[in-house]
Amino acid sequence: MRRLGLSDGPRRPTRRRRVRQTAVANGKVVSSTSTGSGPGVSGAGPPVTQVREGLDGFDHLDVSAMCDVSVTVGSPETSQQAPGTLSGAHPFRRSDPGREAFRVRVTAQENLQRVFRTVVRERTLFVETHESYTSTEPVHVEVQMPLLVSLSASGHGSVNVGGIHGPSFTLGHSGMGVVYAEGRVGHLAADLSGHGVVVLDLPARSAVINHSGMGSLRASGETESLAATLSGHGRVDLNRYPTPYLHLMASGMGTVAVCCTGAAKGQITSMGPVLVHGHPPDWRVRQDGMGSVRFV
Question: Where are the alpha helices (H) located in the chain, listed in sequence order?
Answer without folding.
Answer: 76-81
